[in-house]
Write a structure and sequence with these properties.
Blueprint (H helix, E strand, L loop, with lengths): L2 E5 L4 H12 L3 E6 L18 E5 L12 E4 L6 H4 L3 H22 L2 E7 L26 H21 L3 E6 L2 E2 L10 H11 L3 E4 L5 E3 L1 E2 H12 L9 E3 L4 E3 H12 L5 E4 L14 H6 L9 H18 L1
Helix pairs in contact: 1-6, 3-4, 5-7, 5-9, 7-9
The chain binds nicotinamide-adenine-dinucleotide and uridine-5'-diphosphate.
The site of uridine-5'-diphosphate has 15 residues, from helix 5 and strand 8.
């Protein structure tokens, strides 16, 4: 049995990771400040003796004896990470310093949840790990993008300077159950709008693309990465290479929900990337043939039924 710390464990991805690692017989400590996460996501683990919940902010040091750390703490939705940009960059940078310091002190292995945002608005398509990206350092998204880029730097430097056992994954757009209905990201927005019969808010002309990964595929990749040989540090892309325009996404969601919602067009936010698609050949090679198993319509069906349930409860 391993003792595992998950920062951001009450969030969307973190709560799925808690569940999977508990089911595999580990002891899980979930640390969260509940900025975007929710107790609802982890309610069902609270009476599990192998689960511990800690309300804490990663910008302050935290000490605990653990074998592994998954560092997920950071708001991921543009509206939430732009709400308090200084706090966002502190969470990524100071949070990384605190968690790397902890890993160094207790000799734990530590995995960083980095992001496809490190590629910015990419000039190389699809994105491979050796592409350095095209990020605006002073734009609306930079508190998140540059914070995550700096965290990657810190991970590498703690490895080279202090021998900390590190892993870096770059997550591409991921969706699924346990997303907050007010999360603000495109999949949850469109599903909630379609289920309520409200207008679908399309930013820009809808020709921009994203590649959407179902959360179970991501969690499988994260655990494989944590368990991969020590000399494989990453960064490694984890995403589903099937790429869609936002118009295609909206039309699919309208069809699957039998919705009467209409698409309305709104201004495109500044620095919104035009396209994004992962090259996952490195993950396939290094993580025992890992590749996404759940394609968009199947993943959307599962996510739609989750949102139907929570909207009915409300
Ligand atoms: P989320 O917002 O649902 O989860 C983030 C969690 O971190 C929340 O529970 C939040 O309360 C917590 N948190 C935020 N600031 C904190 C702080 N200072 N101290 C402690 N806890 C804090 O987002 P998510 O989609 O679950 O993302 C999880 C991680 O994966 C993030 O680091 C995100 O950057 C990364 N990621 C996610 C995606 C995606 O598509 N879901 C894509 C790329 C990267
Ligand atoms: N988007 C949209 N309507 C929404 C929310 C998002 O058209 O209600 C667009 C957004 O402009 C972007 C894409 O959907 O082009 C993905 O946005 P999201 O915030 O989910 O993730 P990110 O931009 O960080 O990839």
């Amino acid at each position: 049995m391993k003792k595992i710390l998950i920062t951001g464990g009450a969030g969307f991805v973190g709560s799925h990771l808690c569940e999977r690692l508990l089911n595999e017989g580990n002891e899980v400590i979930c640390l969260d400040n509940f900025f975007t996460g929710s107790k609802k996501n982890i309610l069902k683990f609270l009476d599990n003796p192998y689960f511990e919940l800690v309300r804490h902010d990663v910008t302050h040091p935290y000490f605990v004896e653990v074998d592994e750390i998954y560092n997920l703490a950071c708001p991921a939705s543009p509206i939430h990470y732009q709400y308090n940009p200084i706090k966002t960059i502190k969470t990524s940078v100071v949070g990384a310093v605190n968690m790397l310091g902890l890993a160094k002190r207790v000799n734990a292995k530590i995995l960083q949840a980095s992001t496809s945002e490190v590629y910015g608005d990419p000039h190389v398509h699809p994105q491979k790990e050796d592409y350095w990206g095209n990020v605006n350092p002073i734009g609306l998204r930079s508190c998140y993008d540059e914070g995550k880029r700096c965290a990657e730097t810190l991970f590498m430097d703690y490895h080279h300077q202090n021998n900390v056992n590190i892993k870096i994954i770059r997550i591409f757009n991921t969706y699924g159950s346990n997303m907050n209905p007010n999360d603000g990201r495109v999949v949850s927005n469109f599903i909630v709008q379609a289920l309520k019969g409200e207008d679908i808010t399309m930013f820009g002309d809808g020709t921009q693309t994203r590649s959407f990964q179902y959360v179970d595929d991501l969690v499988e990749g994260m655990i494989r990465m944590m368990n991969s040989p020590n000399d494989f540090l990453g960064p490694v892309n984890l995403g589903n290479p099937n790429e869609f325009t936002m118009l295609e996404l909206a039309e699919t969601i309208i069809k699957l929900t039998n919705s009467t919602s209409k698409i309305i067009f709104m201004p495109l936010p500044k620095d919104d990337p035009k396209q994004r698609q992962p090259d996952i050949s490195l993950a396939k090679e290094k993580l025992n043939g890992w590749e996404p198993k759940i394609q968009l319509e199947e993943g959307l069906q599962k996510t739609i039924s989750y949102f139907k349930d929570i909207l009915n409860e409300a």
